[in-house]
């Protein structure tokens, strides 16, 4: 058996000793991990999730406003959705600052750590608020006949 990396595929001769080499060899690690690139990609992913949740909350707000003030949980739902949207905007702004600051500058580590911790706490509150939004529901329950 050869010392190359191999992969199984449908064309391999299962009865013989022939094996197909990997189509894409494993990339060698070129250098140390650039923490700025890692943090930027992580923050971009968080921002995309934040935008998706912001769109969902805007849609929920539209549905509640369409139901009108006679909806049973009108004020609590409007309040919860508003809190969620405000916190999401704050987290988005914080992520922009976190991405712009240089992680390699040790003078910024304390500030970045505080910002990350605050953003994490806000995200936790956003999740809890959205659980309550879902529990109260946006749609009016079907009337019992």
From TrEMBL:
Pfam families per the record?
Ninjurin
Name the predominant localization.
membrane
> Where found?
Membrane
Q: Which GO terms describe its biological process?
A: cell adhesion; heart development; muscle cell differentiation; skeletal muscle tissue development; tissue regeneration
- Topology class, membrane: Multi-pass membrane protein
Q: Name the UniProt key words of this record, in alphabetical order.
A: Cell adhesion, Membrane, Transmembrane, Transmembrane helix
Q: What parts of the sequence cross the membrane? A: 73-98, 118-138
Q: Name one GO cellular component term.
A: membrane
Q: Which domain of life is it from?
A: Eukaryota
Compositionally biased region (Basic and acidic residues)? 11-22
* Annotated stretches, region: Disordered: 1-22
Q: Which InterPro entries match?
A: Ninjurin
What family name appears in the similarity comment?
Belongs to the ninjurin family.
Q: What is this protein called?
A: Ninjurin 1
Q: What is the lineage of its organism?
A: Eukaryota, Metazoa, Chordata, Craniata, Vertebrata
């Amino acid at each position: 058996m050869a010392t190359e990396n191999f992969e199984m595929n449908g064309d391999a001769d299962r009865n013989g000793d022939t094996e197909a080499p990997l189509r894409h060899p494993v990339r060698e690690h070129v250098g140390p991990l650039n923490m700025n690139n890692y943090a930027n990609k992580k923050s971009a992913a968080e921002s995309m999730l934040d935008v998706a949740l912001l769109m969902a909350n805007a849609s929920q707000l539209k549905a509640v406003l369409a139901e009108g003030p006679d909806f049973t949980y009108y004020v609590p739902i409007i309040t919860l959705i508003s809190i969620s949207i405000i916190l999401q905007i704050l987290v988005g702004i914080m992520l922009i600052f976190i991405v712009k600051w240089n992680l390699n500058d040790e003078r910024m580590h304390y500030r970045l750590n505080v910002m990350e911790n605050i953003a994490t706490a806000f995200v936790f509150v956003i999740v809890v608020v959205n659980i309550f939004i879902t529990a109260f529901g946006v749609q009016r329950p079907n009337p019992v006949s």
